Amino acid sequence: MNSEIDVKAEKAAINKVIHNSIGWAANKDKELSYSCFADDPELFWFSPEDEGTIYGFKSLVELTEGVFMRNEFKAIGYEIRELKINLSGSGDVAWYHARLDDFNEWNGQPANWEDVRWTGVLEKRDGRWVIVQMHFSEPTGRQ
């Protein structure tokens, strides 16, 4: 790894982006959410439900406006467990894995993701970290 890279500082910045990519919903701060992701058509993530899978930044905006900004949606809280962040030798790519509990309501009813596996890739673009790919999945064998 490049000796000029402050690994601790880079991982702290990456950690903040990861948390903000979920935590923005508490205050419906969509600009914070958008700042966490690559604003390009190559942004991608798999969701446990196919209808939540994102292809491109435009799809992220449509999902945010069409679901998360609606009055029916309310973020309750989240917990990220076992987060492990890795940084490339060049210091401009990172990847992570964790377990996520994301607690929400839709029309007052629970709409939670519990113990979801979460992986992702970030790139450092123009001096800031952005998520370019994510994958959420539920462990097999779940009832």
Largest sheet: 7 strands, mixed
The first-level CATH class name: Alpha Beta
Apparent shape = globular
What CATH calls the topology is Nuclear Transport Factor 2, Chain: A
Mean pLDDT: 93
The helix/strand order is HHEEHEEEEE
Number of helices: 3
User: Which residues sit in consecutive blocks of at least 5 with pLDDT less than 50?
Assistant: none
Derived from helix and strand composition plus strand pairing, the structural class reads alpha+beta
Number of strands: 7
Number of domains: 1
Helix content: 10-25%
- Beta-strand portion reads 35-45%
Rg from alpha-carbon coordinates: 15 Å
Query: What CATH architecture would you give?
Result: Roll
> What is the terminal separation in angstroms?
43 Å
Layout of helices and strands, plus pairs?
Elements: H1 7-23, H2 30-35, E1 44-46, E2 54-55, H3 57-68, E3 73-87, E4 93-106, E5 109-110, E6 113-125, E7 128-137
Parallel strand pairs: 1-7
Antiparallel strand pairs: 1-2, 3-4, 4-5, 4-6, 6-7
Provide a concise account of the structure shown:
The chain is of the alpha+beta class. It is built from 3 helices and 7 strands; from the N terminus they run H-H-E-E-H-E-E-E-E-E. The longest helix is centred in the first third of the chain and has 17 residues.
Structure characterization notes:
The chain has 143 residues and is an alpha+beta fold. The chain has a single domain, classed as Nuclear Transport Factor 2, Chain: A, CATH 3.10.450.50. It contains three helices and seven strands; from the N terminus they run ααββαβββββ. Strands 1, 2, 3, 4, 5, 6 and 7 form a seven-stranded mixed β-sheet that branches. The model has no long low-confidence stretch (mean pLDDT 93).
